[in-house]
Specification:
Jelly Rolls; Arc Repressor Mutant, subunit A; 11 strands; globular; alpha+beta; 10 helices; 267 residues; 3-stranded mixed sheet
Length: 267
Amino acid sequence: MRLDHGQFFGDYQTQRAVGALQLAELTPTVPEHEVHTHTHGDGHFLLLVAGHYLSTAKGMPTVCTEPVLISNPPGTRHRDCFRGLAGRFLTLSVPLVQWAAVDDAERLSEQATRLSGSALVAGYRLRRELRGWDSASALVVESEMQLLLSESALQTRLQDHRAPAWLARAREQLHDACADTPSLAALARTADVHPVHFARAFRRRYRCSPGEYLRRCRLEGALGLLANRRLSLAEVAAQCGFFDQSHFNHAFHRAYRMTPGGFRALA
């Protein structure tokens, strides 16, 4: 089965077109056992808002119940579906020609992939825009699409197996222990390279400094914790390695153009 541009297994609650781009919020209508393997000719991004979602995208759990943003490149063949019909999702469909134009400039992943926190927040901004549509919304949607494509390219670089093993190990160390703040010298010792070489290689490969990447990891960890409304914003800040709630608020707003409280309200 091949699904056409902007076509999904769901009931369209709200939808808008920006040129050839199609933005829609849907609820699932097809039971899990009736969803068969299918192909999407064009690319699309999917924001899981609510429900139990089954996906074979890279980085996804077997059953996902937390908000995520998935990039599905043109030609994606899968059987992604909801377990039960109590769900909600947002889609942004991108024509093949627009996707290919970006892929020519920056290599995008050829497989469906769970994207970063920046992409997740962009998905929620798109949802907010869809619900409050005005004369500037078309430009907002186009801008957020470019951000999502850029995040997809970044994810491809992070997963690039051609990166030196020592550099990948250092990046994983920053990701897995993001509440701690290692020195550049300590990271370089772990990698067994000179600190200057380490810093240059890290920036060249990942297009940010180790410190910027560490902050990114902390903010992404905070996004997951914000879904737990039993935690105060101060507790989220402390668990993710920020000095205090004020520092957390400032870093979050600078990265995502909204406050942690604003994101919690949207999610």
